[in-house]
Amino acid sequence: MVPAAIGLAFLALPLAGLLVRAPWGTLGARLGDPHVLEALRLSLVTSTAATVACLLAGVPLAWMLARVAFRGRRLVRALVTVPLLLPPVAGGVALLLALGRGGLVGAWLGSGAGLPFTTAAVVLAEAFVAMPFLVLSVEGALRATDARFEEAAAILGASRWTVFRRVTLPLVAPGVAAGAVLCWARALGEFGATVTFAGSLPGRTRTMPLAVYHALESDPEAAIALSLLMLLVCVAVLACLRGRWVNVA
Fold first, then answer.
1. Each residue's pLDDT expressed in tens, for the chain with a length of 249 residues
2. How far is Cα 136 from Cα 124, in angstroms, rounded to an integer?
3. Calpha distance 55→34 (Å, rounded)
């Protein structure tokens, strides 16, 4: 219990410090600033778009890792987990070298000059660092389900798409929801890859984490208010999802 209490205190004390030092008297005025609202809107839009992109690509990837036996599966799983271990700034550099001007794909497409330092670049950076959370959660949910239900549906004549849509997805829906929540929260808090690949242009690429960083240099109380807002948004989303779509009990 003592080590557990120390671990809990280590996680709770920084949040308590944020709550204690928050400028409650001027919080409303600071959060109502147009620049803050613009950064919040941009963060919500880009993190949601990144989560949708991760769902479209990550759920099939998780299904392949969990259900298909192929040579090199361990390598594929290792590639999926690389963004978890790679420093976000290094991830941003990798995106820039792949999709930027003269990059591996950017030069070939002829559009590399227009992608970095745009809102689309923010979405790509957030999706790059957040997708592993979704893939690993869905893969774990798939491995925990009984594959005999899918086999029975296939024997009865259902196509692969029908089995996936009518049997597999309902079985792993809690895992998909949990992975999507983790993915969204990670995308919302992304900083390193975003500032490297997309920059920090107000109203275009400056998300809430970047706004916190810039505010910390000139107005620490504003940085505390922005951090508190991000904390409240994450807590509100997790509180709404818990018990309805995410079974974590």
1. 899 999 999 988 988 888 888 888 888 888 888 888 899 899 999 999 999 999 999 999 999 998 888 888 899 999 999 999 999 999 999 998 888 877 777 767 664 457 888 999 999 999 999 999 999 999 988 888 888 888 888 888 888 888 888 888 888 888 898 889 889 989 998 999 999 999 988 889 999 999 999 888 888 888 888 888 888 877 777 776 665 444 443
2. 19
3. 31
Q: What is the DSSP letter of 223?
A: H
Amino acid at 149: F
How many CA within 13 A on the CB side of residue 60?
6
Quote the tokens at residue 62: 């998780």
Cα separation of 4 and 8, whole Å?
6
Q: Specify the long-range contacts of residues 94-102, CB closer than 8 Å, at least 24 apart.
A: 95/121, 95/124, 95/125, 95/128, 95/193, 95/196, 95/197, 96/196, 96/197, 99/124, 99/197, 100/197
**76, 62, 16: which is closest to 183 by C-alpha?**
62
The pTM for the full model equals 0.85
Q: Give the DSSP per-residue string, 70-110.
A: -TTHHHHHHHHHHHHHS-HHHHHHHHHHHHSTT-TTHHHHT
Structural domains in the chain, CATH included, are 30-241 (1.10.3720.10)
Cα–Cα separations (whole angstroms), residue 198 to 31, 89, 98, 107, 223: 24, 11, 13, 17, 21
